[in-house]
Amino acid sequence: MKKKASLPVRLDLDEKRRLKEASERMGLNASAMIRLLVRSFVEEYDRSDGHLELPPRWRKDGAADGERAHAAESPAIYATNHRKTR
What is the tens place of the pLDDT at every residue in 9-50? Predict the structure, then answer.
């Protein structure tokens, strides 16, 4: 799917470095990771009828169901552009 909108995001250098490292460990580039995070936030927001706790409390016990576990194992659906980012 072609992306038609741009959203500039400002990060400090350490946040950018850490995001890049985490994304690459998961087989994504930083842009794909941000899209994945935005999509998952919006879906959770809709599921919870707008009742979310911010910042999110990430699970420490792994995925709660098979669908989320499968999504974590298959990041390719979010990585439509495989070129390296700087």
Answer: 999 999 999 999 999 999 999 999 999 999 999 999 999 999
pTM: 0.64
| CA-wise closest residue to 26 among 78, 81, 83 | 78
Question: What CA dihedral angle connects 14, 79, 37 and 69, to 10 degrees?
Answer: -120
Looking at this protein, which amino acid is placed at residue 58? W
Cα 27 vs. chain centroid, distance in angstroms? 12
Say which residues have a Cβ less than 8 Å from residue 63's Cβ, sequence separation at least 6.
69, 72
Residue 63, both tokens: 């995925």
Give the chain's end-to-end CA distance (angstroms, integer).
Answer: 23
